[in-house]
Amino acid sequence: DCLQVTTNVARDIAEALGGFREAEGWFENDDYVVTFAVGHLFELLPPEEIDPKYKRWTLDVLPILPTEFKYKAKKGQSDRIRTIKKLLARKDVSEVINACDAGREGELIFREIVEDLEATQPIRRLWLQSMTQRAIRAGFGSLRPGRELEGLANAAACRARSDWLIGMNATRALTKRLKSRKEKTAWSAGRVQTPTL
Fold first, then answer.
1. What DSSP state is assigned to residue 36?
2. Could you tell me if 128 and 136 are in contact, meaning their C-beta atoms sit under 8 angstroms apart?
3. Selection from 72, 60, 26 nearest residue 164 by Cα
4. Which residues in the chain show pLDDT less than 50?
5. Whole-number pLDDT of residue 26
6. I need a labelling partner for 10 at 20 to 30 A (CA). Which of 48, 110, 125, 150 fits?
7. Element (H, E) at 127
8. Contacts of 156 (CB under 8 A, 6+ apart)
9. Closest by alpha carbon to 24, among 97, 82, 93?
């Protein structure tokens, strides 16, 4: 099996289940391989990588509405991605257990990884509200089928894409409308950022 979690969570799971040896970038025992993600490893392509016409910030190309949302590896994450890809390709990895944070964002981080790396193994979900050793062991005793969380994964993807649409379009529109000729920086706008500021 292969788990996707954060570094500290990976260590906690290994300690709770016991018998793990530490390798470079993962933990392994006779039953499980535990590895980790550190936040999002992938990000949505910026407009200029979708179509060169978006390189120049002009109002005539707005709104930017991609027909397909594609991802790329985030800068500085290639080693982590390479490790996870190598583990997913192992013949003894028969399923993948998502042990990311219990919630929408944890589900999104996990789904971005397995989709981009084209994992074909069945998915199960470890859903924890507590990181005690007892809770971790109990969680492994009641793993949920990954398909039960499809709705949460879709909601997470929808939120990420709508944030991208709002941020990319509003930032460019505001910048073109409000920036003076002397300013060098963009007027940044976003779903959470703008109302908060």
1. E
2. yes
3. 72
4. none
5. 95
6. 150
7. none
8. 104, 105, 107, 108, 111
9. 82
Task: For residue 169, give the nearest of 59, 73, 91 by alpha carbon.
Answer: 59
At 25, the amino acid letter reads G
What is the phi-psi region of residue 39: left when phi exceeds 0, alpha when psi lies from -120 to 50, beta otherwise? left
Indicate the residue type of 144. Answer: R
Residue 5: its pLDDT value, please?
59
Predicted local distance difference test score (pLDDT) of residue 188: 86
Q: Pairing mode, if any, of strands 33-36 and 2-5?
A: parallel
Please report the pLDDT score of residue 143 as a whole number: 97
Q: Give the position of tokens 């709002």.
A: 166
- Residue 18 confidence (pLDDT): 95
Rg of the chain in Å (alpha carbons): 20
CB atoms within 10 A of CB 157: 17
The runs of H, that is alpha helices, within 47-149 are 47-50, 78-88, 104-116, 133-141
Distance in angstroms (rounded) separating the CA atoms of residues 120 and 147 = 14
Alpha carbons within 13 A on the beta-carbon side of 31: 7
